[in-house]
Amino acid sequence: MPRFEPRGEVNRALLVGVSAYDSTRPNDPHGVPGDLAAVAHNVSLLEETLSHGGVFRKGEVVVSRSPYLDAFSESLRIAADEAEGLLLFYFAGHGAVPSAGDELWLQMRNARVVPGSRAVFPGADPFSSVLTVLATSRARHVVVVLDCCNAGNAAQVCEALADRRRFSVLMSVQANNRIDAGDDATPTPFTARLVRLLEEGVDGQGTDVGFRDLSEALTAQMSAHHTTLRSEPWEPQRWGDTDVLLSRPSAGAPSGIPAAFPGDPPPPVRPLPSVEQPDEGAKGTAESHGEQERPSGSHPPERPSSPSQPRPGDPTGAAEPPWWRRLLPGPRSWGPAALSAAGRTLRLLRSRPRRTALIATVLVGAGLGGYLASAGSGPDQSSCGPPLELRLLTDPDIESTVRTAADAYLTSPANTTSDGCRRSGITVYSAGATDAVTGFRDQSDPWQRPVSDDLDPQRDIGPQPDIWIPASSASVARAQPVEPPRTYLTLESHGPFAYSPIVLAVPQNIAEDSVDDRTGGSLAVLRKKLVQRQEDADVRRTDPEFTDSALLATVGLYGPQADGVSRAEGSVAQPGPPSHTGSDLLCTLPDDRAVDDRTAALVPEFLMVSGVGCDRPTRSRRMAEYPTDVPALDPTFVRVRWEDADRDRAARDEAVDRFRSWLTQGGGHGGKPGGGLDVFGQDGFRAVSGAHDFLAAPDTGAGTLAHPGALPAPAAADAMTTALRRYRNANGPGRVLFLLDSSGSMGGLWEGPGGAPGILKQSLGGLGDRDEYGVWAVASHGDSSSRVLLPFDRHRRADAERTIDRTAAVQDTETDPYAALTAALDYMAGRGKDDDRPQLIVYVTDDEDNNHLTGAQLDGLVESAGDKGVPVVMAALDSGGCHRGKPDARVSDASGGRCLDTKTDLVAGLRDEVARTGTGDE
User: Fold this and answer.
1) Which of 702, 571, 521, 537 is nearest to 624 (CA)?
2) Strands 424-430 and 388-394
3) What are phi and psi of 348, to 5 degrees?
4) Contacts for 752 with CB less than 8 Å, ≥ 6 apart
5) Residue of 538, 542, 537 lying closest to 553 (CA atoms)
6) Ramachandran region of residue 205, left (φ > 0), alpha (ψ -120 to 50) or beta?
7) Are 739 and 842 in contact (CB under 8 A)?
8) What is the reported pTM?
9) What span, in angstroms and rounded, lies between the C-alpha atoms of 595 and 120?
10) pLDDT, tens digit, 9 for 90 and up, residues 145-179
């Protein structure tokens, strides 16, 4: 995929630097560790660099210095709302996790740490919430840069993104690692190098800087010269492979950062631009600071933002206007800008009514209050008020198409008044299909008024939608409330409007030669013929909990010709968790060319047309085979009505009906869509009725068939519900044997939630009361390679944790990993010889004694791991345990398990693997 080029787009960069905190230790026992003076330099230098880097124009870089949580939330929403091209979000400050492997929280100025409280970090925002807001933006690409302790813990949240290729995340350090902020008089080490690379180019010659090259250069430089507070190499992490231009040093960015780093030749000294330190005595609430309540800008009125001051090196030396005056570019052009700002502000007021008085005062004081009634954006200066905003929830698999259609509608004649004003705006977002169904059916009350952190649909699904477009009409029936006493919504289906069958996308080198052989058979028959052609062929399916298409594929997988649910699930088993969406699956298979060449994917047919814009330059060409027993997708338009939401009902109904009418018709010409069906056709969908012809003829190279014969009907709700229940109960309760390295070298990796026993205990949430599990301590004692800490049986989690706490201890001896793993494989193979229950072995180790696991011993263990059929998860508490060819990687690969080390989010990965085997709630 080519590098995304954001120049010329409407871009936004929000730089958040929290250098001053209201509550710090030791003065407040519940405070954060301390202030971070270095962070004040970070945002000033980065603002200077980005503003002169050739990507962001004047006024597109906004700085927020030490904001309170409410002010941060407002700034984030405004930036997300304004960006159309590139949206860059940067955070520097304290980052915390409740325990090792948990989600990252970004701590704002009013952050505190309250052990035992449900909200462990008041005054902080979980990264999942930040990502949710960023995902609502219409920006074509979103870049996130985090410079804080535990930044790598953000990666686990990113995995839940539906439109993953739209995000690129750069994390300053690997998960579960704290870092030093450096000297108070200089930027933090990570941001110092970040700024230098943006200014000078990755090669030091002023060439363009893209996200991918930048992240690789930062990793190389930081790991070579710095260590974390755990004395591990400091290794910045990257999530997402889409490249995007971030800086053009040749555009004339000024040099403003000292370039002296450990191991570098000493450069000439260059002074830092002046940075006004935060007023340490300025304490109070968010409402007491003007900065915190402004709809845009970064500084309180008494401290204007640096864009409104002369920049060092600016030949004009002219001061830019303050934030409010930047809304008024000139006497002849200030109207549209003012209306745009007012529209954003009024949307803000609708979500935060208690702030109406204050922001209205700002509007009037800036001369905007009276202007709204008389000015407009057209040549006749007619009035354009802020358009009504609609919220649209959809399925992750079809989100990209729905978003493209919504974007086309916004500028269409159907959404434009005779005065040239926009009638409505549409915010498109997605959530897991099962979560959405459950939310509508059972959670309309907490969706309106969340009452606890355990049940919060606004956080887990998104805001209350006006429109829902599931990928299957059956999901509408599944989501209908069953008349409970506390139901606060109704779902009005207007029927399906497009169609796409689920296909088996087979690599061309192992696909059927005959067109007739690609149609007319059940999924079981097509898979059997595939294995006959290629003995080691695999089939993969995405997560049935996350998209309708994956659950429909599961309906076919469990069909009458399947040999039981256990074997059906085994036929699509894979190392690690399944991909969330069909697009993700098609774009991750090329990571391993051998796997790509022999693996078929169960995906919606339309993705063979529009879901192939992967980052990999080479990928296996695929041919579609059409199973007759897998129900098809039929996206359906649903109006969602919420109780007591009548204030603007007539206007909202009119806006929804107008969009539905446009979405469900075509008739475009000259490359411009005349309706939503034109967009769906371009993305590979078919007509919902008749013979299901393509809405638009796809490229001949897509691998699809225009007329594959009789196509399957959409699903029945009962079939999807039954398949989901059988999927969740597949194979019955599981068995897990934990091996805990207890040798002397583990002493420094033992205590606390981030120690080996703590990591093991955190994974127990994936095991239920019907699962069987046990723990062996691996440490050599005479002829024994291990001893039992927790007997293999069913356990209540609390009892198991108490037993581990009481019995686990470091031993002054070495381990014999060969003997321990061999014994564990034999033990579990014996346990599972009479049933198909899922099994797993987990070995938590520091790899210190892997020097004994070499040569014939290692080869024998690898062979045994492959023969026994029990997946082994190697959880290596060092950063290099899973490198290709290492013992951990070889054993886990041979067994069909997974290798985890500290370069990844080890704790979250381990919890996922155990949960896939067990029947617990986590």
Assistant:
1) 702
2) parallel
3) -65, -40
4) 100, 758
5) 542
6) alpha
7) yes
8) 0.57
9) 43
10) 999 999 998 988 887 776 778 899 999 999 888 89
Q: Give residues with Cβ within 8 angstroms of 274, minimum separation 6.
A: none
CA dist 15 and 17 (Å) reads 7
Conformation bin of residue 113: beta by default, left when phi > 0, alpha when psi is -120 to 50: beta
* Distances from the Cα of 52 to the Cα of 60, 168, 211, 313, angstroms: 11, 22, 17, 11
- Angle between the 69-82 and 334-351 helix axes, to the nearest 10 degrees? 130
Please state, in angstroms and rounded to a whole number, the distance separating the CA atoms of residues 271 and 274: 9
What residue type is 622 in one-letter code? R
Dist CA 397 CA 258 (whole Å): 47
| pLDDT tens string 311-345 | 333 333 333 333 333 333 333 333 333 333 444 33
| Residues pairing with 95 in the sheet | 106
Contact of 824 with 761, CB cutoff 8 Å: no
With beta carbons less than 8 A apart as the criterion, state whether 742 and 778 touch: yes
How far apart (Å, rounded) are the C-alpha atoms in residues 14 and 18? Answer: 13
State the residue for tokens 């919606």.
604
CA atoms within 13 A on the CB side of 733: 12
Q: Which residue has the tokens 């539906």?
A: 162
Could you tell me which residues come within 8 angstroms of residue 656 by beta carbon, excluding any fewer than 6 positions away? 390, 466, 467, 639
Q: How far is CA 218 from CA 190, 206, 705, in A?
A: 8, 16, 46
Cα 138 from Cα 12, distance rounded (Å) = 12
The residue count of the chain comes to 922
Q: How far is CA 113 from CA 26, 95, 117, 284, 327, in A?
A: 13, 12, 9, 18, 39
* C-alpha–C-alpha distance, residues 521 and 526, integer Å: 6
CB 487 within 8 A of CB 440: no
**Around 848, how many Cα atoms within 13 Å sit in the side-chain half-sphere?**
16
Decide: 395 and 360 in contact? Cβ < 8 Å.
no
Q: Would you state the pLDDT for residue 728?
A: 80
Beta strand 872-876 with 898-900: parallel, antiparallel or unpaired?
A: parallel
**Two tokens at 36?**
């971070």
User: What integer pLDDT is reported at residue 648 of this predicted model?
Assistant: 86
- Residue 842: both structure tokens together: 């987990």
Return the bridge partners of 17, or none: 65, 92
What's the CA gap between 919 and 520, in Å, rounded? Answer: 37
Residue type, 57: R
| 682: helix, strand or coil | helix
3-state secondary structure 563-627: CCHHHHHHCCCCCCCCCCCHHHHHHHHHHCHHHHHHEEEEEECCHHHHCCCCCCCCCCCEEEEEC
Q: Is 606 exposed, middle or buried (0-12, 13-18, 19+ CB in 10 A)?
A: buried
Q: What is the distance between the alpha carbons of residues 76 and 90, in angstroms, rounded to a whole number?
A: 11
* Neighbour tally for 374: CB within 10 Å: 10
CB proximity list for 893: less than 8 A, separation 6 or greater: 575, 899
pLDDT on residue 71: 92
Residue 762 makes CB contacts below 8 A (sequence gap 6+) with 99, 100, 101, 753, 907, 910, 911
Rounded to an integer, what distance in angstroms lies between the CA atom of residue 418 and that of residue 654?
17
Name the E strands within 197-240: 209-210, 237-239
* Rounded Cα distance, 188 and 191, in Å: 6
List the chain residues with pLDDT less than 70.
Answer: 1-2, 99-102, 115-120, 162, 250-383, 453-454, 483-485, 563, 612-618, 670-671, 731-732, 836, 921-922
Strand 784-793 versus strand 772-781 pairing type: antiparallel
CA distance 609 to 596: 18
Q: % helix / strand / coil in the chain, to the nearest 5?
A: 35, 15, 45
Q: How far apart are CA 32 and CA 688, in angstroms?
A: 57
Confidence at residue 754, expressed as pLDDT on a 0 to 100 scale: 81
Q: Around Cβ 838, how many Cβ atoms within 10 Å?
A: 23
